[in-house]
């Protein structure tokens, strides 16, 4: 009897272990669903031509923040159309005088010296490094409430398919964000996005057009 009674404790232990395993599996599944929904929502926004607002998922409810003013309804429609998303809360960015001044300063600096890259790579040119350093000075002097989107682009060339172009453009954005963080801009104030070759600023297929399109832009969010 003592032996049997001694084994009774195994029964509740087995239930406890099973419960923990079930909880862990449920948590992992929920986390994976949230991750997948976030990726799908961000992809849908990019495909719709929006500058990748920040997306967070809680369960199946989405929050889309830093949406440019006037684009909230469209962002809500795009994310709401993602299969699996139950509800969407859209938060438009507030554009105040400080944001406008900062964006103008950034745009002026990049018109004078664009953030350029070597062909087919994420290595900055000498001019590109100079441009990033200048932009870092502007961002350091901006109000700490401002956030910035670092958007990468590639030149339209036949050697890259759509996925490769998007990946390379994102790598360029990540390289600039890393340099800005090294220059003292908190990384949590920077988001990155790659637009591939979908937004050229120069037409044609010559070297000058390629250099112009092979770039990174920075937007106040």
From TrEMBL:
Matching PROSITE patterns: OMPA_2 (PS51123)
Stretches for region Disordered: 190-212
Recorded superkingdom: Bacteria
OmpA-like domain residues: 104-221
Sorted UniProt keywords: Membrane, Signal
Keyword Iron applies: no
InterPro entries named in the record: Bact_OuterMem_StrucFunc (IPR050330), OmpA-like (IPR006665), OmpA-like_sf (IPR036737)
Signal peptide (residue range): 1-30
Pfam families with a match to the protein in the record: OmpA
Protein name: OmpA family protein
Organism: Prauserella alba
């Amino acid at each position: 009897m003592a032996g049997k009674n001694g084994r009774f404790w195994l029964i509740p232990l087995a239930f406890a272990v099973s419960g923990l395993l079930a909880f862990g599996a449920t948590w992992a599944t929920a986390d994976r669903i949230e991750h997948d929904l976030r990726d799908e929502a961000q992809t849908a926004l990019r495909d719709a031509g929006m500058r990748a607002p920040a997306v967070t998922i809680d369960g199946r409810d989405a929050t889309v923040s830093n949406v440019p003013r006037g684009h909230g309804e469209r962002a809500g429609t795009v994310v709401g159309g993602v299969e699996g998303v139950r509800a969407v809360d859209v938060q438009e960015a507030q554009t105040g005088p400080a944001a406008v001044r900062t964006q103008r300063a950034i745009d002026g600096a990049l018109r004078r010296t664009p953030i350029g890259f070597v062909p087919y790579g994420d290595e900055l040119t000498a001019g590109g490094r100079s441009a990033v350093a200048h932009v870092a000075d502007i961002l350091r002097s901006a109000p700490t409430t401002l956030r910035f989107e670092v958007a990468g682009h590639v030149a339209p060339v036949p050697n890259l398919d759509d996925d490769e172009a998007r990946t390379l453009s994102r790598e360029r954005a990540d390289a600039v964000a890393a340099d800005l963080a090294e220059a003292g801009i908190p990384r949590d104030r920077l988001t990155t996005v790659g637009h591939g070759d979908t937004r050229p600023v120069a037409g044609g297929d010559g070297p000058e057009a390629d250099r112009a399109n092979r770039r990174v832009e920075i937007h106040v969010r």
